[in-house]
Amino acid sequence: MRLLVLFLFLVASPVFAQKYVTEKGQTIFISEAPLSSFEGVSKNLNGLIDLDQNLLDFYLDLNTLETGIGLRDRHMRENYLETEQFPFAEFTGKLQLLPDLKLNAPVEVKAIGTFKIHGVEKEIEVFGTLTKVAENQVQLDASFEVLLSDYSIPLPKLVFYELAENQKVTLNAILTQKK
C-alpha cells in the first residue's frame, strides 16, 4: 500500500507543478524629465515564476534596451549603465501571498525582493497582476520605480534635463508552464 501511495505521489507531482518561464518578456523604462521624455524597450526579459517554491527571478541583458536613437543607446550603455562591467539587471524575490489563479481572472500581487543593477543591490517592492491566460500560461504585468542615485547611476552633467532621476519600469510577459 505504501508503495502505491509513493508511486501515485511521484507520478502526480509533475501535474501540479507551477513553474512558469519566459525568454521573451518585455521591459519598458520611461524617463520623464522636464525638457525631454523618452522610453527604452527590450523584448528579451528572461523570467521564472515558481509558485511551488514561491520564487521569482527575472533578468534582462541591458544591452538589449533600445530608445530609438542609436547614439543615445550607446551613451546610455557606455557612460551610465556601464554594460561592459554590469551587463544585467535582475530581480529575485518572493510573492507576499501566493495567488489562486483561475482562468482569465487577474490577481493583484506584491513581491518583495532584491533588485540589482549597476553592481548595486537594493530591496524593493514590485506590484502587479498575474492572470492565467491558458491552461499552461500566465501573464505578468508589473511595475516599479528606480531612483538612479540609489544604484550609483550618474545623471548626464552636460544636458541636465535629458534623463530623469526617477525611472518607471514596467514588465509584461507571457510565461509558459515548465514541465
UniProtKB/TrEMBL annotation:
Keywords: Signal
First and last residue of the signal peptide: 1-17
Domain Lipid/polyisoprenoid-binding YceI-like, first and last residues per copy: 19-176
Pfam families per UniProt: YceI
Domain of life: Bacteria
Family annotation (SUPFAM superfamilies): YceI-like
InterPro entries documented for this protein: Lipid/polyisoprenoid-bd_YceI (IPR007372), TTHA0802/YceI-like_sf (IPR036761)
PANTHER family cross-referenced by the UniProt entry: PROTEIN YCEI
Protein name (record): YceI family protein
Organism: Algoriphagus namhaensis
